[in-house]
């Protein structure tokens, strides 16, 4: 029986999916795909948008609602339902895929379902994808980290002093979920205007935003889904 | 005139190239590709192997020798020659690509050529690829980093105490070029057998090695091209 495949879609630009991921989607009978409720009863799904641009038939895509609430239990409940539905299709001999934006093993809450299936002895497979920070680096033409430099990825909570300490010890710093540390990032830019700041939203999509001017960033309000790459200019 | 494209090939498994990268290779007139001299006048090129498996015509692949010596100047000389040859083809109206394993902007020495072309005002484009640690995580079915966890990537030089400090402050640690810190990694495993150690070589290729048993790793000699993902078991 085919394993249940966790297919990484990459960061948003459809053609940044891997060939392996695309083939898995083309071969799947049923593809579980998260959507997020927005205002007026509508829903958004960047994952479904990517698949439709790759000509995956809409009738094979099975959307499930993933609430964006702070309560993790709401998301876990949604995932438990996907788990049960995927398992039942798998037992019926169907080829099942579950998709994630970016890479399904890198800050991807859907990995909860992978672990639950694995614990139940169900064959699972994870197909790698491009993380957002890698796509951002390519968009900016950056050498994100080179030679002896290190990379530290921080999902949201940090201070200006910590960023300073990391940069001074030859780390490239990638900060995600910037809305959680806006003031500290602004303070870091004021303290260290000499660092190299590259800010990204929605890389590779029509909504893309790319700002490399620290002064402009100093007053910008960051949304949750945004990303900053900070490097020492003198490396 | 088309930009000179820096195409990331991914970590070694041919189908982990992106669709965008594959199309760029298929459209290129000339693809510069590194090979490494080995014994008896022979050369190896994992990059060329990947492209041949993707049915890129061999006569469009232009191999250049990239010495593995410790002297960085030898590699830079090789890159300077590629720069000149690529520039001349570009001026003749040819579509030129230059490839890199993994991601061309993440610990990729070929980025030197990108920067030199950019400084000369030549249009360049970087196409993202899967870094080896992301492919390794997928191979091992790992959630490399999740929620508030951080990621630190260390290219070779570290100590057991530093790894300990990072793990205890909720970092996942990825160490590359393990041959440079074999003794410290062995010492860390003896000090902290309770951490989760996942060791990888040549992920996705016939030479793949994947070991998740710390005891087995404690005596293993690591080659240069190898990778370890260390996590706290209790996260």
In short:
The structure is a homodimer of 235-residue chains. With 235 residues, the first copy, chain A, is an alpha/beta fold.
Textual characterization of the structure:
Two copies of one chain form a homodimer. The first copy, chain A, is α/β, with parallel strands linked by helices and 235 residues long. In chain A, a hairpin with a 7-residue loop joins strand 9 and strand 10. The model of chain A has no long low-confidence stretch (mean pLDDT 95). In chain A, the strands form two sheets. In chain A, strands 1, 2, 3, 4, 5 and 6 form a six-stranded mixed β-sheet that branches. Chain A has a five-stranded mixed β-sheet with strand order 7-8-11-9-10, with helices on both faces. Chain A has two domains: 4-127, Tetrapyrrole methylase, N-terminal domain (Cobalt-precorrin-4 Transmethylase, domain 1), CATH 3.40.1010.10; 132-231, Methyltransferase, Cobalt-precorrin-4 Transmethylase, Domain 2, CATH 3.30.950.10. Chain A has eight helices and eleven strands. The first copy, chain A, is elongated and about 60 Å long. Chains A and B meet through helix 1, helix 4, strand 6, helix 5 and strand 7 of A and helix 1, helix 4, strand 6, helix 5 and strand 7 of B. Strand 7 of chain A pairs antiparallel with strand 7 (150-155) of chain B.
């Amino acid at each position: 029986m085919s394993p249940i495949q966790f297919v990484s879609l990459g960061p948003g630009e459809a053609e940044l999916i891997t060939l392996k991921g695309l083939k898995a989607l083309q071969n799947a009978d049923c593809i579980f795909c998260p959507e997020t409720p927005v205002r007026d009863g509508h829903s958004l799904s960047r994952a479904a948008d990517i698949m439709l641009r790759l000509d995956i038939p809409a009738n094979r895509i099975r959307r499930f609602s993933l609430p964006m609430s702070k309560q993790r239990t709401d998301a876990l409940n949604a995932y438990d339902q996907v788990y049960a539905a995927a398992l039942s299709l798998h037992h019926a001999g169907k080829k099942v895929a579950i998709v994630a934006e970016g890479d399904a093993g890198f800050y991807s809450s859907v990995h909860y379902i992978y672990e639950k299936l694995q614990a139940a002895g169900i064959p699972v497979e994870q197909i790698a994808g491009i993380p957002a920070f890698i796509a951002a680096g390519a968009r900016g033409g950056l050498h994100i980290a080179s030679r002896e430099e290190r990379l530290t990825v921080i999902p949201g909570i940090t201070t200006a002093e910590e960023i300073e300490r990391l940069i001074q010890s030859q780390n490239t710093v990638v900060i995600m979920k910037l809305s959680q540390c806006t003031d500290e990032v602004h303070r870091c830019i004021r303290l260290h205007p000499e660092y190299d700041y590259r800010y990204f939203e929605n890389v590779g999509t029509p909504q893309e935003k790319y700002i490399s001017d620290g002064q402009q960033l100093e007053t910008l309000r960051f949304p949750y889904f945004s990303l900053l790459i900070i490097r020492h200019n003198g490396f």
